[in-house]
Design goal:
It is a single chain. By secondary structure, the protein is α/β, with parallel strands linked by helices. The strands form two sheets. Strands 6-7-8-3-9-10-12-11 form an eight-stranded mixed beta sheet, sandwiched between helices. A four-stranded antiparallel beta sheet has the order 2-1-4-5, with helices on one face. The protein has helices spanning 46-53, 79-85, 107-118, 124-137, 154-166, 184-201, 212-216, 236-241, 246-253, and strands spanning 4-15, 18-30, 35-40, 61-69, 72-73, 90-93, 172-176, 204-209, 221-226, 229-235, 305-308, 311-313. It is globular. 28% of the residues lie in helices and 24% in strands. The chain is built from nine helices and twelve strands. A hairpin with a 2-residue loop joins β1 (4-15) and β2 (18-30). Bound molecules: adenosine-5'-triphosphate and magnesium ion (MG). Residues 13, 15, 20, 22, 40, 42-48, 58, 60, 95, 210, 277 line the site of adenosine-5'-triphosphate.
Length: 323
C-alpha cells in the first residue's frame, strides 16, 4: 500500500466571481522512501493539493475524491484524529514558510513547539535535546538554537522549517516550493538535504516546484500539472527527457541544460498565459497555447493515457500503449 494515495481529487473554491475549480480530478501516489515532484505554472493547483493532504483547505473550498494516508481517509477523519495525524504522521513545509518564523523568538523555541504540542509532559531538557538532534539532522549547528531568525540566511531558515516539520517524526513530508527563494547553490544544498532525509529516514516526500529541472534531478517520479490537472506523470528521467505532453515538453525545454550546445535544448518560452480556472477553455485546457493543437483538441478533454512503463500523458497525440 502506498504511503499517500490521492484519488480523483477535486477542489473548488467558492468566490464572489463564481466557483474556481483549482484541482480537477488529480490522482497521485507516493511510497515510503521515495520522492514525488509536482511541477506546474503558477495557479495550476499545486499548493491546493498540498493543503488537502492534511485537510488544511479553507472553508470556502469543496473537496471531493479520496486522500489516503497509509490507507486512512484524511477527508473522513474526525478532528481529534486529524490533530493527532498532523505533524506526527504527515507534515507540510508551506510555500514561503521561511518568512513565517516569529522574529521575536529564538529558533530553538520555535522548533520545540511541535515537540511540546504532541508530547504532553516533555521536559524542557528533553525538548532541548530533541531540538539539537533536529538541527543536526538538517545540517545546522545545534548552537543556532539560540539565534533569532534575522541572524540566519534564507537557506538556514528553510532548514529550520524542515527541522520543525520533522519534529514529530512524520512518515510523509510535503515541501511546497522549498527552494524558490534561494540562490542556485543553496537550492542544491536544500535538495541534497531532502534527498538524504528520504534515504536515511525512509520518508515519503512530495516536493512542489514550478521548476521542472529542479525536480527532475532529485525526484523518483514527477507529475506535471496544468490548470488543475496532471497532464503527464512518470519516472523523472522519462518525463524530463521524453515528455509526451506538449506542455510538459515546453516546461522541460524552458530550462537550459548546462554543457549541452544543441539547439534542441535552447531555452524556449511558451506563448500566452495559463488560463484562469474560473473560465477554462473547452476541450483540452492547453489547446489555445499548444503548438500541436488540432481541431479535436477544442472539444476532446483527454484524460491520462499510458505511454510507457509507469508513464502516462493526457494528449490526443499519445496513442496509448499498455503500461
Ligand atoms: N482561498 C482561495 N480562494 C479562491 N481561489 C483560490 C484560493 N486559493 C487558491 N485559489 C485559486 O486556485 C488556483 C490554484 O491555486 P494554487 O495556490 O493551488 O496554485 P499553485 O500551483 O500553488 O500556484 P503558485 O505556483 O503560484 O504557488 C489559482 O487560480 C488560485 O487563484
Ligand atoms: Mg503554490
Amino acid at each position: 500500500m502506498a504511503l499517500l494515495e490521492i484519488e480523483d481529487l477535486c477542489v473548488t473554491y467558492r468566490t464572489d466571481e463564481g466557483p474556481v475549480p483549482a484541482v480537477r480530478g488529480v490522482s497521485l501516489s507516493v511510497d515510503e522512501g521515495t520522492m514525488l515532484g509536482v511541477a506546474g505554472e503558477s495557479g495550476s493547483g499545486k499548493s491546493t493539493i498540498a493543503a488537502t493532504v492534511l485537510r488544511l483547505t479553507p472553508a470556502s473550498a469543496t473537496v471531493t475524491g479520496r486522500v489516503l494516508l497509509d490507507g486512512e481517509d484524511v477527508l473522513g477523519m474526525s478532528f481529534g484524529r486529524l490533530r493527532a495525524v498532523r505533524w506526527s504522521e504527515a507534515a507540510i513545509v508551506f510555500q514561503g514558510a521561511l518568512h513565517s518564523l516569529n522574529p521575536l523568538h529564538r529558533v530553538g523555541r520555535q522548533v520545540a513547539e511541535p515537540v511540546h504540542l504532541h508530547g504532553s509532559g516533555v521536559t524542557r531538557r528533553a525538548a532541548d535535546g530533541r531540538v539539537a538532534e533536529l538541527l543536526d539532522q538538517v545540517g545546522l549547528a545545534p548552537r543556532l538554537a539560540s539565534a533569532y531568525p534575522h541572524q540566519l540566511s534564507g537557506g538556514q531558515k528553510q532548514r529550520v522549517m524542515i527541522a520543525m516539520a520533522l519534529a514529530c517524526r512524520p512518515r510523509l513530508l510535503v515541501a511546497d516550493e522549498p527552494t524558490t527563494a534561494l540562490d542556485v547553490m543553496v537550492q542544491a544544498q536544500v535538495l541534497d538535504l531532502l534527498t538524504s532525509l528520504v534515504r536515511d529516514l525512509g520518508l515519503g516526500l512530495v516536493v512542489i516546484s514550478h521548476d521542472l529541472a529542479v525536480l527532475g534531478s532529485t525526484c523518483d517520479r514527477v507529475a506535471v500539472m496544468y490548470a488543475g490537472r496532471v497532464v503527464e506523470e512518470g519516472p523523472s528521467a522519462e518525463v524530463l527527457d521524453r515528455a509526451r505532453h506538449p506542455y510538459a515538453r515546453a516546461l522541460s525545454a524552458a530550462f537550459p541544460t548546462i554543457g549541452d550546445q544543441s539547439a534542441r535544448f535552447a531555452p524556449r518560452g511558451l506563448p500566452g498565459d495559463p488560463p484562469w480556472p474560473g473560465d477554462l477553455p473547452t476541450g483540452c485546457s492547453f489547446h489555445p497555447r499548444c503548438p500541436d493543437a488540432v481541431e479535436m483538441c477544442r472539444t476532446e478533454d483527454v484524460r491520462l493515457r499510458p505511454c510507457g512503463p509507469g508513464h502516462s500523458a493526457a494528449c490526443v497525440h499519445v496513442p496509448g500503449v499498455p503500461a
